[in-house]
Amino acid sequence: MFWFLTILVAMANGEPAVWPAFLGAGARPGATQSLPLEWTATENIAWRATLPGHGQSSPVVWGERVFVTGVEGPNKETYHTVCIDLKSGDELWRQSIENSAPVANSYYVSRAAPTPVVDQDRVIAYFESGDCVAYSHAGDMLWKRSLVDELGDFKAEFGIGASPCQTATKMFVLIEHDGPSGLLAIDKATGKTEWKVDRESRRSWSSPAVIHVDGATQIVVSSAGSVDGYDPESGETLWTFTDVGGNTGTSPIDYGNGRVLIGASPGRNGENAGSAADSNCLLQIARQGDGWTVKREWIAEGAVPSWASPIVHQGLAYWINRAGVVHCFDAQTGESVYSKRTKQSCWATPIGVGDRIYLFGQHGIVSVLAAGRKFEVLAENESWNDETLPAEPLLAEEESPERRRGVAMFSKPTLYGAAVVENSIVLRVGNCLICVREADAG
């Protein structure tokens, strides 16, 4: 709870704007008046910053510095951490480390997928190889380690994708694959493991989240058949909820007062269709004596997300599916408010700001909806075109015919994530950051 309050107090006091981890991690963007409503590939684009290699992570922001990661090389030999000036788009520094577990670079494996975390003292980049490195805001290396040395080789056909979350002193890393899996708490100042809890081997790419329940902080993991709460200080399992399935890609979302949104997907071939149907839901966590209870309050009927996590904004919960259909529910009752189609499928999670909901289309169309019970599209914005952001060079040819057919889709520029701070929206494409800002906003 202290970390969450620190962010809110700092923002209220006019201190540096922050977007400190995956999905913002409690950051509350300001009013929409300062954010752009409309833009094109050439208008209200403050800057574009070309990045080394390719990355699927989202940007994080502390004050005037944007941090992002990437990977480069035919066998993903080199990991990069890059710092960009938020105002100008200039590269302030770039640091690189050698990948301790190189594998063939492919459209079908994670490529610098985990989003880093940042606080007032450091930025910590964690990569799917298990390599983990901390830098000061000036780019000086503070520590580096490989989690593989402690856990053994990662055995994941499509790679590791879970982003870490953090409290004031610890970073929490979820490692789930076909080998020994677990949740680790790492001291942010030293890089040393504070505790580790074993988890069943399973394939999942969902990220843990810091959830605040009745004055206590918990680390909540929603992953492949269970939702679990952990004590951040000791790693003790506080509660487990197992009546779920298909929850392999989305993160638990804190609605406040012990309420958590859970997302679940039927899977690419519908293998989880049965269990996922009832697993897009709101869970209520509550104290009971010295322990905790968890129950499902309502089900998001018909909602079937892909990679985008659900969000809650101004009392309404939103899910978006693979086809770009937005499902809106009353967050208190679970009543369906509307289901409407938008321009594009979304891989990135939507962001609610003031009276708007920003939907980040996979291929760069950002739809802006009116927040509220009426479906209203306020704007549909093209963030790039073939001239402003050409396709990246193709990777080595895939082995199977099915994968070769998929290259046409995966090789196009993809919008993986976004950060919202003050008057800027920072978009992450594989090899580029794009800052959207009103032309007169400075």
Characterise this structure:
By secondary structure, this protein is mostly beta strands. It has a domain at 1-149 and 348-442. It has 4 helices and 33 strands. The chain has helices spanning 2-12, 148-151, 273-276, 401-410; strands at residues 18-19, 45-50, 60-62, 65-72, 78-85, 91-98, 117-118, 123-126, 131-135, 141-146, 165-166, 170-175, 181-187, 193-199, 209-213, 216-223, 226-230, 237-241, 253-256, 259-262, 281-288, 291-299, 311-313, 316-320, 325-330, 336-341, 351-353, 356-360, 365-370, 377-382, 415-421, 424-429, 432-436. The strands form 8 sheets. A 5-stranded antiparallel sheet has the order 1-3-4-5-6, with no helix packed on it. Strands 2-33-32-31 form a 4-stranded antiparallel sheet, with no helix packed on it. A 4-stranded antiparallel sheet has the order 7-8-9-10. Strand 15 (209-213) and strand 16 form a beta hairpin. The longest helix is centred in the N-terminal third of the chain and has 11 residues, at 2-12. It is globular, with a radius of gyration of 20 Å. 48% of the residues are buried. The model is unreliable at 8-13 (pLDDT under 50). InterPro entries: PQQ_rpt_dom, Quinoprotein_ADH-like_sf, WD40/YVTN_repeat-like_dom_sf. This is Outer membrane biogenesis protein BamB.
